[in-house]
Amino acid sequence: MTKTDVSSLTQLGSEAKMPASPEEAVLEKVPAGHCGTQYVVRFTAPEFTSVCPMTGQPDFAHIVIDYIPRDWLVESKSLKLYLHSFRNHGAFHEDCTIDIAKRLVALLDPEWLRIGAYWYPRGGIPIDVFWQTAAPPAGVWIPYQGVAPYRGRG
């Protein structure tokens, strides 16, 4: 794919069916326009949902993904559909979070990636999950994710 050729993309610019599962979802990438420049790309999904694998009850999270691209950017519509594919997917918080991160790393081979998943309480206990590929590169401005820990009423 050249810098201007996006003809191989299957979802951008056309109607795309919601994938039934994360395994069925197609994540796509586009060429990064500023190779050799270190910058951070942030995606925020404040209404992420999945399903508890034990009870079948819905789980909710605020997910923040930051990465420094090398040659590729994730195509945002495909990411949105991928994240929505977890809606009926039964998995623990930790599994959802790490699966998302590892799938993006496998697709993009970014210079650096981190994910912060701020899960709302299940059984009265919030479970937050954080992961990154390595220490952030020196000299790159990486903003605070800005999601407050769950405090409940008070």
Automatic annotation (TrEMBL):
User: What is stated as this protein's family in its record?
Assistant: Belongs to the GTP cyclohydrolase I family. QueF type 1 subfamily.
Instruction: Spell out the subcellular localization from the entry.
Output: Cytoplasm
- Reaction catalysis annotation: 7-aminomethyl-7-carbaguanine + 2 NADP(+) = 7-cyano-7-carbaguanine + 2 NADPH + 3 H(+)
Recorded E.C. number(s)?
A: 1.7.1.13
Q: Which pathway does UniProt place it in?
A: tRNA modification; tRNA-queuosine biosynthesis
Broadest EC class? Answer: oxidoreductase
Q: Where is the composition biased (Polar residues)?
A: 1-13
The name of this protein is NADPH-dependent 7-cyano-7-deazaguanine reductase
Say where the protein is mainly found.
cytoplasm
Instruction: Give the start-end ranges of region Disordered.
Output: 1-23
Report the protein's function: Catalyzes the NADPH-dependent reduction of 7-cyano-7-deazaguanine (preQ0) to 7-aminomethyl-7-deazaguanine (preQ1).
Q: Which Pfam families match?
A: QueF (PF14489)
